[in-house]
Amino acid sequence: MARPDKAAAVAELAENFRESNGAVLTEYRGLTVKQLQELRRTLSGAASYAVAKNTLTKIAAKDAGIELDDSLLTGPTAIAFITGDPVEAAKGLRDFAKANSPLVIKGGFLDGKILTADDIQKLAALESREVLLAKLAGGLKANLAKAAGLFNAPLSQAARTFAALQAKAESDPSVLAAGELVAEVAEEVPAEAPAEAPSEEVTEEATAETVTETASTDADTEG
Prior knowledge:
Number of helices: 9
Helix content: 55-70%
Strand content: 5-15%
CATH topology of the largest domain: Alpha-Beta Plaits
Number of domains: 2
């Protein structure tokens, strides 16, 4: 490769390193052109996949402020530059490697931290960003429903709940970061018991007194 071509290739690789959240270095020896195209389609949206010479990759990474271990730069190297969800990119590489044994995941980096091949496998085992956001939204909805129930409760029950909330926060301020304290305390504070209805004995006694008073009034009127 002529010097101007090398300089252009290094500049392009360095730009890819800078613009990516991370990168996974792989060995692609044995993969066909068709398989490489399939892998690029698999990673589409999460990462771009490019074949690169090891010497140029090392220079480009250094220009971008990234120190790559020499063990990652052995054999034919292709780089998955992560531009989307890192979990989805790791899953795509892991699943493709399972179905196509020539692909070997060597390692990489993410947000400035070096990743081993095992780290990338663990990353692939995580739930995707979309799934986590869906679960978070579901949890927030459930807790908001509990909080709404609290604010619709009788004033005396709400007062007891907020008193318990204040006491728990004062004893352990870290619980405020959990996001579930109001719902948790609301469940701990018992609902206010409904007022007891008058017993039958009291009702009958009151009725008897009313009848007596009425009779006395009638007698005074006739007299």
